[in-house]
Structure of G-protein coupled receptors family 2 profile 1 domain-containing protein:
Amino acid sequence: MSWVWILVLLLHTLKTGTALIDSDDVITREEQIYLLIGARAACDRSIRSQMALIEGQCVPEWDGIVCWPRGAAGQWVSMACPEYIYDFNHRGRVYRQCDVSGAWEQADALNRTWANYSECTLLSSDYSSHAEVAACWSWFHNVHV
Ligand SMILES: *[C@@H]1O[C@H](CO)[C@@H](O)[C@H](O)[C@H]1NC(C)=O
Ligand SMILES: *[C@@H]1O[C@H](CO)[C@@H](O)[C@H](O)[C@H]1NC(C)=O
């Protein structure tokens, strides 16, 4: 997928106002992407509206799936597995650690911030839709920075 494609999606989303979800309780890959784009836009607005950072705090940021608030140095931060990821276990939580210097913990091998999503993926036996979400997930991770 390319940025052109994302632009088309964005323009379409702007034109129609909101993402449309079929009433048949099945979510397509496109619908899932609409939801993620909406969540990211909301996250960007939220981050812009937050006051200047205090030294030593982890920055609020969008990681491709979850909109993280600022974090206090040396603390774990957790967020509910987001509703807008259809296949997640919505009773689970995602965890991330803000280290003592006020930087989000990195996944060493990947050189990027790391979060523990294992509770979010505990649930479903529907492997095909898991694969779908995983595809969206990795795609967003690849393009969002
Ligand atoms: C890790 O990312 C930082 C900032 O994005 C960059 O400056 C650094 O070179 C990267 N390190 C590796 C090993 O890729
Ligand atoms: C991720 O979270 C789960 C459940 O909360 C925990 O059991 C697991 O040890 C964590 N994984 C890592 C690598 O921290």
Summary: Confidence is low (pLDDT under 50) at residues 1-22. The domain at 3-143 is CATH 4.10.1240.10 (Hormone receptor fold).
